[in-house]
Amino acid sequence: MRIYTRLTWRAASDKIHMIELSNTIVKRSPVSNKSKHRDRTILLARIAEMHYLDGKNQNEIAQEIGMTRSNVSRLLKEAREKNIVKIQVIHPVQENDLLSQELVTRFELIDAHVIQVHQTKQLLHTLGKVAGKELTKYLEPDISLGTTWGTAVSATIDQLEITNRIPNIKVVQLLGAVGSRIQVYDGHGIVRRLEEILDAEGIYINAPYFVESATAAELLLRTPSIKESINACKEVDVALLGVGSLDFSHCSYYLAGYMPEHELLEIQKTGAIGDVSGRFYNINGEKVAQSYQDRLIGIPFEDLLKIPIRIGVAGGREKIDPIIGALRGKLINVLITDSDTAMEVLEKTNHLSINNFKAGDYGI
């Protein structure tokens, strides 16, 4: 048994008053505890609203609700700790136009966007923000948008902002599904999210991206539904693509448990350093690991190259060689990356010597 004072809120004449209901003798019970927790959450939310949205300082809040300023300060801190208040600082995206132009010139790209990222944890978010803006440039009525899966592609969709509906868009899955473990950025999940954002028609590949043998892949590719989906891949106008690393510590196929170690080793032995839409290539962008390519369910290598706009989104040290191969092989013709990665790509391809220019000229 315990005695406590229950507090609640009542709004009157645009002022909030705390009302003391009554001192009640009750048994401690799950119901009363839930009620106390709910009332406290309401209290925290309202004090936070008064401070952050109404612009009242802590003294004004304390005076209005009848508690000390130190109590108000403590409750505001608790509201932040319990995620009742979330503070977001939005930095303007800084693009490095000189490095972007270097990439366009060196690799004969349609476009490139090189961004400054000051914190590694912000890399995907910032890449996605710029990639989302770039993608919207190409979205128009009756267009066919192809997409693969991955964290960079998922981050792009998170940042995609569509103000007006664009009619008759198709969203086409370019590579079979990974499975149920990573639904947010699995091929099916990506297409589904784009369907909702764009109010589009989704075309799915209802098969795994990688199967036991070339014979199994051939049989699947003959089925009418999958054949129809692969044919739709060949009609895509714009592709949103990630650039995958085949390094053990970063290979999504291996880390997700869908490719055993010995198979990844065999693929690496062919000279493969990366993949775009599941298609493996070497540092020069040449198709390799053919016996494994034959087991993939997705857009063929040659048809991927025929897509007019191929937007690649990737950044970080582990993506340097994969990006170089993808650029040399023309697997992507629009690149969204960060400045550190762009610098390394240009230096490794003998197009830029870090020692031979003023760092300030490149915004570094």
TrEMBL record:
Pfam families: Sigma70_r4, Sugar-bind. Keywords: DNA-binding, Transcription, Transcription regulation. The keyword Lipid metabolism does not apply. The keyword DNA-binding applies. Residues 93-347 form the Sugar-binding domain. SUPFAM superfamilies: NagB/RpiA/CoA transferase-like, Sigma3 and sigma4 domains of RNA polymerase sigma factors. It comes from the Bacteria. GO terms for molecular function: carbohydrate binding; DNA binding; DNA-binding transcription factor activity. One of its GO terms (biological process) is DNA-templated transcription initiation. Residues 39-82 form the RNA polymerase sigma-70 region domain. Gene3D superfamilies: 3.40.50.1360, Winged helix-like DNA-binding domain superfamily/Winged helix DNA-binding domain. Belongs to the SorC transcriptional regulatory family. This is Putative Transcriptional regulator LsrR. It comes from Candidatus Brevifilum fermentans. The lineage of its organism: Bacteria, Bacillati, Chloroflexota, Anaerolineae, Anaerolineales.
